[in-house]
TrEMBL record:
Protein name (record): Transcriptional regulatory protein
GO biological process terms, semicolon-separated: regulation of DNA-templated transcription
Entry annotated with the keyword ATP-binding: no
Pfam families: TetR_C_31, TetR_N
Origin species: Bradyrhizobium diazoefficiens (strain JCM 10833 / BCRC 13528 / IAM 13628 / NBRC 14792 / USDA 110)
Alphabetic keyword roster: DNA-binding
Amino acid sequence: MSRVRTRPTRDDTRDKLFEAAARVFEEDGIGGASIEAIAAAAGFTRGAFYSNFNSKDELIIAMLEDHVEQSIRRNMDILAQHDNLDDFIAALRTMDRSRQDPLGRSPLLHMEMILYVARAEKRRPELAKRLRARRKLIADIVEATLKSNGKNNALNPPWMASVVLALEDGFRLHRLIDPETTPADSFLRAITDLRRRTGLAAG
């Protein structure tokens, strides 16, 4: 009989560190969170942390990268099922955040982490890389929607993607500052309004 593996894989360890880091960041703040606290929250030693990441900043970059990769896969899966923009937005509204990665479950923590990394100028190119990946995803969704509806629209998908992402990040920041007047669905409501105004209507 084959032996049952009891040691976690590298991906398992990273996922547990991501989950633990999110909890510690929310409790202690990103700046105040220590590597020791993150490792302990994950049930690992400090050495286990350093076998995966060289620093807290590297962990944060990895979390942001993982979030973008998962977001792209998730949105492309939804697009494959709903090439109609109204249906796509409706699917986003009903998406179960509890099954997402830590930053998907907590958009505010995602924004805080972006701002934290952006404070270091040398790290900004890494953020730019992920921003471009997000922008391309949205541009692909806009272009696919236009084609599926048989529209030869004059809209510029890359520019529309920039507008959409600016709205998304803006509403995240507004909700961080003033959650009482910024409902959780503000971004999707804005996208629905934008869709109606630009003629990106269902076929």
